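Thread title: Can someone regenerate the structure for this chain?

I was given the following input by a collaborator and told the matching structure tokens would be attached. They weren't. Posting the sequence so someone can regenerate them.
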Amino acid sequence: MKRYRLLLIPAAILILFIVFTVLVKTVDVQYLPNNTYIGFYTMNHDVKNWVESFGSLDMMDKMSDVVLYLSFAFPLGYGIYFIIQLIKLKSFKLIDKRLYVLLGTYVAVVFFYFFFEIFKINYAPIESANGSFKASYPSSHVFIAVTFILCGTLASIDMLSITKILLRAATLVIMVFLVLMIGVLRLLSGQHWLSDIIASYLLAGFLISLFSIIYIDNRPVKTDN
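Best answer:
Regenerated them for you:
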């Protein structure tokens, strides 16, 4: 019963994300010159003006791309590992269940990405090269990278049996740094409103917390020899 109570954590984060999304569509909504609307206008507009005062937006955009591309190493690596296990074991049933949980989480990331590409909440503050405005809520860079990196890191520490405290701590610190950095970089790139970044962390938090609970339940049971 206590295990099911833990599901209240991702449920609470998901509700918070939904509530925040509703507020973005209803609170302090202002019309923009690109024929769209943005909620939390005062906050978002003030932060946008602050970001533009820094300049070098293109460099920040490219740096955030680097972090995103680095995060792709996790689903790629675990996808290859899944195939290797399948070839060796010749059975889907014998494959480590933790891999199913991890790859299932990555599939959920893809689902949410396309969901918000179809059901657009708001658009980016900067016009794209072809003269259009891309959907920007939530920031796909932040959402994808945060989920890929943290879920992949937690799984790697467990599957590789990293027991040294300093090594575990160093690994987590580096990954958390990347997770925080991409949010800052995406904001400073001018490609997103502050509300887009906040929403990305909330949605990623939902998936990561849900992943952690299901992952632990699917860890192999250790037996004493």
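The first strand starts at residue 30 and ends at 31.
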